[in-house]
Amino acid sequence: MSLLEITDLSIEFRVDTGTVTAADGVSLSVAEGETVALVGESGSGKTATALSVLRLNPEPPCVYAGGEILLDGRDVLKLSEKDLRGIRGNDVAMVFQDPMTSLNPVKRVGAQVAEVVRKHQGASRAAARAAAVEALREAGIPDPERRAAQYPHQLSGGLRQRVMIAMALVGRPRVLIADEPTTALDVTVQAQILELLVDLQRRHGMAILLITHDLGVVAEVADRVVVLKSGRVVETGEVVPLFEAPREDYTRELLRATPKLERV
Ligand SMILES: Nc1ncnc2c1ncn2[C@@H]1O[C@H](COP(=O)(O)OP(=O)(O)OP(=O)(O)O)[C@@H](O)[C@H]1O
Prior knowledge:
Layout lengths: L3 E12 L2 E13 L4 E5 L6 H7 L9 E10 L2 E2 L5 H7 L4 E4 L3 H4 L6 H13 L3 H14 L5 H5 L8 H13 L5 E5 L7 H18 L2 E5 L3 H7 L2 E6 L2 E7 H6 L4 H8 L8
Parallel strand pairs: 3-8, 3-9, 6-7, 7-8
Antiparallel strand pairs: 1-2, 1-4, 4-5, 9-10
Helix pairs in contact: 4-5, 5-7, 7-8
The chain binds adenosine-5'-triphosphate.
GO cellular component, one term: plasma membrane
Main location: membrane
Membrane topology: Peripheral membrane protein
């Protein structure tokens, strides 16, 4: 059994104007050390599906109308809020598109990472600060001591994303969910962040669920791909064979929108 096994998942948002079905019988799995990409056009249900792994869709209006999400054999949909708190950041961590909205603008980044260290390891203030600098170094931030003393706005977008990755990895998660982690960055920096994720995965053997609309990114880093359309999986398979011979017109359309595909 894979580390993460989503089976027949249905997610609904029950809003004033009616019910929006964000996932309609989605099944996918991610094994240890594997990267699975979730692709699809805007509104296809990628983020709602990914957030459901940590039960982070707001309930209400979100209702999990069916299916299961097994994390190491435990169904996330049946867990108490207390158990979920134990999973978030420990077993499963997330990295989002825009680090500026997740980082506190008036706190030095080192202190923000140290806070996460203290939460996970209960370390002393000094030990947490040292561990934070190490985490920043591991995330490929040059001169991490100096950077730790800076505020988010003093860092480039790429460095801010590295800070977020450092924070996500402090709890040594077994699953990392990366939702459009490079979309806000320019192309060169995108490639560096993807390389960092691949490198960290090799070192720690994490399972990565990567949400992106960019099939170029998928071609570079993913092992398998799951194609979503209107909340349904229309096609799934290993990246290279699927990209070479997509079965569905929808996948072909997505591929046509991608200028060039390369693998690192
Ligand atoms: N909190 C919410 N309340 C109401 N509807 C929601 C909520 N979150 C998502 N939805 C709806 O669920 C559907 C799927 O949205 P989701 O964000 O998962 O798509 P996506 O594939 O991630 O799109 P994008 O690439 O634009 O982020 C959409 O119709 C969206 O409007």
